[in-house]
Amino acid sequence: MRNTILIALVCFVFLGCKKDTYSTTPQLTYKSVKPIRLFPDQVIKFNLTVTDAEGDVIDTMYVQKVSLNCPASNFSERVPIPKFITSKNLKADILVSYSNGINNPGYTTIASRCSYDDSCYFRFMIKDRANNKSDTVRSETIVVVGN
Questions:
Q1: What is the spatial distance between Cα 48 and Cα 55, in angstroms, rounded to a whole number?
Q2: Cβ(108)–Cβ(101) under 8 Å?
Q3: Minimal CA–CA distance to 96: which of 71, 119, 67, 125?
Q4: Domain extents in the chain
Q5: pTM value?
Q6: What angle do CA 16, 20, 22 make, to 5 degrees?
Q7: How many other C-beta atoms can be found within 10 angstroms of the C-beta atom of residue 61?
């Protein structure tokens, strides 16, 4: 009986301790992308979420396109993060958009540089003002339909 009470007490202590979900290093989570098959002149939108204990993720996001069958289409870029209200224990959604073609002003194009469809995925990483870097997150495979 005594051991049962001790085990129950230990279980309650562990269950009562809630893990802090915010850390000094930004935590980037990949949520979704639409569409998965990107036709010419269509816009693709990646949805990500970031959390940070200090709320200072207002610096840079790194984006990399990795082509599976058209290496000429690969690219890496630094994207400034849009300004938003910051606070301690920050949680924010980030939307990153690209276009398959040049007929969508204001968007960077990710059109295939080959004469065929381009299967690819994207990787994202975020950095805060203190130069802390998140883990790299990856999208699922996307098909960029050739022009």
A1: 16
A2: no
A3: 125
A4: 20-144
A5: 0.80
A6: 165
A7: 22
CATH number of 20-144: 2.60.40
Q: What Rg do the C-alpha atoms of the chain give, in angstroms?
A: 21
**DSSP line for 8-56:** HHHHHHHHH-PPP---SS-EEEEEEEE-SEE-TT-EEEEEEEEEESS--
Tell me the CA distances in angstroms from 87 to 57, 62, 68, one per residue in order.
10, 22, 39
Per-residue pLDDT of the chain (147 residues; tens, 9 = 90+): 443 333 433 333 333 444 457 788 899 999 999 999 999 999 999 999 998 888 877 767 999 999 999 999 999 999 887 676 677 888 888 899 999 988 888 898 998 888 899 999 999 999 888 888 999 999 999 999 987
